[in-house]
Task: structure prediction
Amino acid sequence: MRIDIITVLPELIKSPFEHSILKRASEKGLVEVNLIDLRSYGIGKHKQVDDYAFGGGAGMVMMIEPIANCINELKNKRTYDEIIYMTPDGETLNQKICNQLSLKKNLMVLCGHYKGVDQRLRDHFITKEISIGDYVLSGGEIAAAAMCDAIIRLIPGVLNDETSALTDSFQDNLLAPPVYTRPAEYNGWGIPEILLSGHGENIEKWRYEQSVERTKKRRPDLLK
Ligand code: ADE
Result:
């Protein structure tokens, strides 16, 4: 998979892709993440990328020209499965969307700033608008990093058996069960006896029941 991320702050979004699972995914050649500095498409001497909103009001709007030029240049080189705009008024990201996106070949991600981008970009270039939750971040970069992390770890071959995504929360609409590691007793606090039984089938059954209990209690909406 190739992910091209358009941003005015490439430095801000770089680090998450340079560690742990995401780093290994790119080392294995399973993903290539490219950060494109929108500033280099800026207009005039000052490389302007934003301007005042028509009609007035506080806050700047990201201009159509630099972004359209950048998107068109990228589109000339390859075909994109989705051109995603990160925005708090988009569709809320969930595991199902991540699963779908993890099967794509080429993704483009546009990070918004200020009051957002000129609506004409959304109307004519963007194919998907994603929010990572009902709160407003200072820009789309952290949202893009969160989304890309959730997608990349699902690309076949990225996770091994030990880190398998199949046992993640949400993967089957259930939250993950509680987990424990050594020591089996700390400060007088033990662990569920069954986990020491060595009986695989019973342990799996217990984990499933715990998942269902936890989901009922914390996220009953997932069971509907
Ligand atoms: N940009 C600012 N806030 C955001 C959010 N919650 N999701 C996606 N992009 C954003």
Observations:
- The first strand starts at residue 2 and ends at 7.
- The pocket of adenine is lined by residues 86-88, 112, 131-133, 135-137, 140, 143 (CB under 6 Å).
- The beta strands are 2-7, 32-37, 50-52, 60-62, 82-92, 106-111, 128-131.
- The longest helix spans residues 200-218.
